[in-house]
Design a protein that fits this description.
196 residues, alpha+beta, four-stranded antiparallel β-sheet, three-stranded antiparallel β-sheet, 38% helix, elongated, disordered C terminus
Length: 196
């Protein structure tokens, strides 16, 4: 399903039970709220689960470890552009059985950096996929539900019960979406530490 942004907006508005919109530039409360919450909804849904279409791996660029962290961590890396959520890091050899510890902090200039003890780190992460054409049907459905939950608050000012129903609609759909997406991957068995 190659849905457009307007179709997803109208799916969300359908969950709420309000009128639909024809374009992003309409000056209606529905279009205004959809426009305001669109980017936030997308980032939240992408962070909630590592959807296959939004996964990437990149070798990280080393930066200086901030002095305040130098006693705790040996290496610092700049996060990739559009990185929304870091999942796992690896060294040169992906054979690591154990998870390698890391943390993400803000540097003095406000950019986020990843701190770890792994040299030449590679990162598995979720990136911010803004192109609707790249989204799969599963994500589109979840995006419409999340957008409905967010815009329901300003559009349904005096109907807190309906707003709670919209949030519940998203939350109860998430496990099924996760299960469906997870069925499209099968992780390799880790190598036995004794053999290594």
């Amino acid at each position: 399903m190659a849905a457009s942004k307007i179709q997803i907006w109208n799916m969300a508005l359908g969950f709420i039970g309000t009128r639909t919109v024809a374009s992003e530039t309409e000056h209606t409360p529905e279009a205004i709220q959809c426009g305001l919450f669109w980017d936030s909804a997308r980032r939240q849904v992408l962070r909630d689960y590592p959807y296959n279409f939004a996964q990437a791996r990149k070798t990280l660029a080393a930066v200086k470890v901030p002095d305040v962290y130098a006693e705790e961590w040996r290496f610092a890396y700049k996060l990739p552009d559009l990185c929304l959520k870091a999942h796992r890091i690896y060294g040169r050899e992906r054979r690591e059985v154990r998870r390698i510890p890391f943390t993400i902090v803000s540097s003095d200039d406000g950019t986020e950096i990843l701190l770890t003890d792994m040299e030449a780190a590679r990162l598995d992460y979720t990136w911010d996929v803004t192109d609707v054409a790249r989204w799969d049907d599963l994500f589109i459905a979840m995006m419409a539900r999340k957008l409905a939950a967010l815009i329901g608050v300003p559009l349904l000012k005096n109907n807190s019960t309906k707003v709670q129903e919209l949030e519940q609609l998203y939350r109860t759909s998430l496990p099924k979406a996760m299960e469906s997406n997870a069925s499209e991957r099968h992780d390799r068995e880790p190598l036995d530490t004794w053999l290594l």
